[in-house]
Structure formats: C-alpha cells, structure tokens
Amino acid sequence: MSKLQAYIDERKELNLQELVELLKIPSVSTDPALAGDVSNCARRMGELMTEAGLETEIFETKGHPIVYGERLEAPGAPTVLVYGHYDVQPSDPDDQWDSPPFEPTEKDGYLYARGATDDKGQFYALIKGIQASREVNGKLPCNVKVLCEGEEEVGSPNLDPFIRKELDRLSCDIVFISDCSQFGIDMPAITYGLKGLCYLEVFVKGPSTDLHSGTFGGSVANPANVLTCLMAACQGPDGKIAIPGFYDDVRPLEDWERAMMAELPFDEEEFRKSVGAVKVFGEAGYTTLERKGARPTLDINGMISGFTGEGAKTVLPATASCKFSMRLVPDQDPDKIATLVSDFLNEMAPDTVEVEVRPHHGASPVIVSRDGTAVKAAEKALETGFGNRPVFVREGGSIPVVNTFQEALGAESLLVGLGLPDDNLHAPNEHFRIVDFHRGAVTMAAFLEEYGKGGD
Ligand SMILES: [Zn+2]
User: Fold this and answer.
1) How far is the CA of 100 from the centre of ligand 1 (A)?
2) Which residues does 135 contact at the CB level (< 8 Å), separation at least 6?
3) Which of 50, 63, 135, 217 would you label with 235, given CA atoms 20 to 30 Å apart?
4) pLDDT in tens, 148-171
5) What's the predicted TM-score (pTM) here?
C-alpha cells in the first residue's frame, strides 16, 4: 500500500490542478446557454479518463453527452462500475459567493468552486485512484468501467434508456458511487440504505362552486374540513402511520443496526437547533437517527383550498387538495403502498364529497447487504485511505439511478461519500476538503486491490 500512497503523494499537485481545470468549466446542465460548456466538460473529462488509462468513448444523447471508459484486463476478477456526474447545479445567487464559483479558490485546506464536491471533485478522486492502481501495479486488479453523465442535476432523463440499451457494456458485479458524504470530519461512511418514495395527491370535491359559509355552512360538507380529517387519520399523535398494512413489509431494524446507530456521535440538541424546531418529533419507539434513515415516514408537502389571501373571507370552498409523500424503507413497494393509501382514503371518505387520489412518481428503497465482499473491501479501503474505519449509515434520500442499476444490471451500489455533510452542495461557497480528494484516490485504489483479491 505504501507504494500507492507514495505515488499519489507525488502527484498531489498535478491531480489537484487537473481538478481545478475541470471546475473552471461551467457545466450547468439546466442552462441552455451553457450547453457548449457542458459538452466541453464532457470532452475534457473524456481526455482525462483516457490519460488515466481508460479506453474512453463519448455517447451523444438527446441531452448532454455521457462519457464512458473501461479497462478490462483482469480475467476472473470482478468488475466494478464507477458512476458519477460532470454536470453541476447553477451557481446563483453569485453575489453570495466569497470567490467566483468557476474560479476555483483554495482556502484553509478547502477548494471552493461549484462542483468541487458535487460531483466533479469526488468523481475525479476515483479516476485518480484508478490511474494510481494501474500505474503502481502495472495493471488493474479488477475490471473497471466508468460511467459519467452530464444530466444528474436535471433528473438524468437520458441515463435510464442508455443503461437499459447498453446492458452488456455496463454489466458489472458492483457499482461504486461517491456522490454523498462522510458522517463527519475524518469519519468516512458507507451508506448501505436509501429510502424509497411514494408521492400522491388527493383531491376532495364538494359543491359546484365556493359558497357563503353563513348561508350554506352546516348544510353541505366542506371539502377542506373533510381533507384535514382524512389526512389526520393517516397518522397518530405518536407518529405511527395509521394506514392498515402500511408497515407489513417493513424490514425491522436489526439489533446490530440499532447498536451501531446509537454509537454514532450524533448530538440531538445540535440537530434540533440546526433545524430550528421547538422539539424533535417522530415515530414513538425510535431514535432521531433511526427515524431519519431507517423508518418510513409520511409528510404533507402542500395543501390547497379556499381563501388564503390577506384579511378574512367567509367562504366554504368547493374543493381542497393535498400533495403528500411517503419515504419508504425496505421491503416496502411504492406501487403497493400507493394502492393501500388510496384505498384507505377512499374508504374513510364520507359520501358527501368526491375523493380522488392520483399518484405522482415513486422510487423503491434500497439496502445493500453489509456482508458482501464489496462492502468488506470498501470498509478496508476507507481505513487505508482515511486512517479510520468507516461508519455505516442509512440515508433518508433516494438516488433513483441506484434502483436502475439494481433492476437493469442486477448490481448493488456501494455509496462511499468523500465529501462532508456541510460542503454546501447546491448552495453558494460549495467546497471540498483537499486532503479528502487525495484520500479518496487512495481509497479507490485500495478498493480495487481488496476487491480484486476477493475482499477477505
Ligand atoms: Zn451529485
């Protein structure tokens, strides 16, 4: 391992300089005026991947290009697919940046730029790790495929069809993704669980038009009153979701998971202050970290009804509607949950109104077995790269491409965050800790070595 460390140490300045050049390109995927820069960034990324020893190809799509590279020189060894994205979020509000977003600036050991952590910095660390592994060993210990898209920040509209069309090209044993974060400084993390999503909208229709609440109130049902009753019936005051069958497929938290989460240095009071809540709240019987990462939830996202302007208007609204979402955990199925909830609301609804439930989008929850050889290899690799064993975390968010990899390629994803939770991604003054960029490269190289020999 020391040879590898020495190789990366020697190239630190060069690697960082290459990243700086990438960060200068404003590859904002949502802005049509910057489409040329997005393409340039794809081409530059392709050149750098070629220099790192990958056979690289650029695939045009209906939107921004996909950069793909591979080096398959380890017959019998497993294949790793590295996924990342070279596009970035818009930089505005630009006046809130301390240094210009596309003029990367070093300060106090951090590199400031749009994309520094999300995801150019994290992704490029992996590329540098692949290169180091190949140059130090003469060849790669695993087969490596690299998929870098330019539309992650706009919902990856062309990635899904690309993956489903290129199943052979992309076939792999594990997907390696660094597009998340460590648990804290010097506390590398492996995210082994992601929540899924079921998003619904319910419409309650009453009288044909808004009515005078004095003349008509009490003689016809008020859709807003009905809607609030219906939504209130979905969850008890103890935070438990009251929809029959909702928890049927929930995989219970295992004792080791609860013990592990309890040991994480999580300060509940700090957390409470950071969100500005009067008190923390959630499902009875679970800790805040368990609720955040590993228990299903239901939240109203917005409600529309009646008069919401300045002053008072005595109206009985004709309609009321509500958008709400449920974050799901393994093994809940978003379609099954949508049906359960919709049936529940229809059954609860009084016959004085019409109720309709419409589904929006959904995503399946994900959990990666902690016992797999890839996870074990990543655990060792992070210890080599960061000097500390990683903690295992479950996240409340969803990463839809992880589901596509699972469904289309039958491959699980390893989510290895190199950034920090307060890197300001999607916000002004985005930054990446420079030492973690280099450690990320060491981690990737160490992972290929460990995984290549079976991860034992
Ligand atoms: Zn990202």
Assistant:
1) 20
2) 7, 53
3) 217
4) 999 999 989 999 999 999 999 999
5) 0.86
